[in-house]
Amino acid sequence: MNNGWRHTAKAFRWRRSLWIASLLTPALVVMVLFVLWPLLSAFRLAFYEFNGLQPTGFVGFENFRKVLFETPYSDWTYNALKHNIIAFAALMVFENGTAFLLAYALLKALPGHRIHQVIVFLPVVLSAVIVGFLWKLFLHPLFGLVNQTLALVGIGAIPWLGNESTALGSILFANIWHWLGFPTLVLLAGMQRVSKEVIEAARLDGAGDYVLMTRIIWPLIAPSVTIVTILTFIGSFNWFEIPYVMAGLTGSPGGATDVLGLYFYRTAFGSTTTGIQDFGQGSALAVMMFIIVAGVTAIALRYLRRREIEL
């Protein structure tokens, strides 16, 4: 009797394992073919010299040396990296800061708050290409909606995307408008998990909205903050679609909007304006981007997770 039961349980476990494997296999195949294999190929090709798209010889770390230490490539690399860092800082302060305030406002469940949740999240479902073209039209110096609105109060036309001092900020504003709803809903979900008894007790002790946000809610939504911070960092260093649509592949004007994604693409596949095409250097840039994103993400996750435990 016991042996029969053991055989039945073993057969059941075997069928369950087979069923789980059959469900996971298609996803694993896709991951290997379209993620792992291209990633490993980029690592390998970063150490080769290329003639077009054909590797011609092993050159070791020469491609990395060029993009990091040889002008003008190193200048372009550090300029693009600087803009990615600026983008991350701006998104953390303006996008996520605004998202925190919006999430707290939605938490108060004022009349119509569910409609406002939909309105806030609606731009997120739009394609980044559509958002880029939309804001490029809005910021047009002659017939754009922004300059037409400013003209009503006596302010002349401003070339938002044609001026080095305003181009990057304009693209960042479009990106914030596009993605603001995502961190808002993530932070709102974290706030909704905070016990109502805790909030009511703080209210009874005389805590106002500022104290409630900074001393009660902010520490208790640490897991949500971790998610938002990590995704913001990854997104800001993989930034490509909106800068490409609004400023072009060269990061015009004068490289003021250049980011690592644009620089990698035109280096690896060429550009009609620069005429430079080197797949080896492009692969080196891709490897560097992966190392930066993976390394900083791992360090940040360790620090932020430790902060969650301490809180």
From TrEMBL:
It holds the Pfam family BPD_transp_1. The chain crosses the membrane at residues 20-40, 85-106, 118-135, 141-161, 168-189, 216-237, 244-265, 285-304. InterPro entries: MetI-like, MetI-like_sf, UgpAE/MalFG_permease. GO terms for biological process: transmembrane transport. Its main location: membrane. Residues 77-300 form the ABC transmembrane type-1 domain. SUPFAM superfamilies: MetI-like. It is a multi-pass membrane protein. It is found in: Cell membrane. Keywords: Cell membrane, Membrane, Transmembrane, Transmembrane helix, Transport. GO terms for cellular component: plasma membrane. Belongs to the binding-protein-dependent transport system permease family. This is Sugar ABC transporter permease. It comes from Mesorhizobium kowhaii.
